[in-house]
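Quick one from the shared queue. A colleague (R.T.) flagged Heme A synthase as missing a structural entry in our internal table.

Convert sequence to structure tokens.
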Amino acid sequence: MHRSLKWLAVLTTLGMFLVLLGGALVTKTDSGLGCGNEWPLCHGQIIPENITIETVIELSHRVVSGGVGLLLAALSIVAWRTIGYKRETKFLVILSLFFLIAQALIGAAAVVWGQSDFVLALHFGISLISFAAVLLLTLLIFEIDQKFDASTVVIDKKLKWHTIGVTLYSYIVVYTGALVRHTNASLTCPDWPFCVNANPFMSFNMYQGIQMGHRLAAGLIFLWILYIAAMAIRNYKHQRVIYWGWIIALTLVSLQVLSGAAVVLTGLNLYVALAHAFFISCLFGLLCYFILLISRSKLNEGSVSKVS
């Protein structure tokens, strides 16, 4: 039973990841109206007759989202019955289902009635929360074998609050990045890292402000994670999950910044843009896992080096 549950959890997590990247693909290829202003039908049909690449992308995203929704429903029922005794299980099940439904409703509303760019920018972030919840649920399921006990992890207050802070802040970074794409501000500053061609006193318009605001937010999260990673490397050498976890986080945020620069410098290359979405998704999932560890670990009030 446990083995089947693990496979179901992994499959659902991968499916949620495909939903996440599929939504990014829809946005980056401007395929949101690939099925016209109709949902769940596509141009009034289940399978439309006149198929364009935009139609294929939008319809595929809907089909994958529906299939993953069924997988998530099955996983939620089995996990609730099997590991419902774990305190986080029911919360994560409800969270993943709620935000998956919210993502679908916002997507449907955008197709049928249209939405402002500032509302549409929420779509990726909502999908990200659902993905992170499913990822954490999967990790809980894999703890059935008790090969890792999070209660053995000791985290001091300083690292705890930095972790919580940078995780919450990462959501702001995600939103500003989505806003850049939805407002078509990606190439309003074709230079990187600064908007060299813009006169900061005369011609700095809203779109350049959105673009540069995202770059500033991304720069700050890079510096913040660099600082936390240095802290982890210095004080958590004997706690491999924390030590290597923050090294991976630093690697992911570095790749995120580099891919963001490459998006601009390559003129919105689709593969680079999807890589950009991939790295932030992995980073957010990892940060959420750190939060899970904090909630289950022993909190050391003093310096962690005293107990390492």
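Residues 148-308 form one domain.
The chain has two domains: 1-147, 148-308.
Added to the table.
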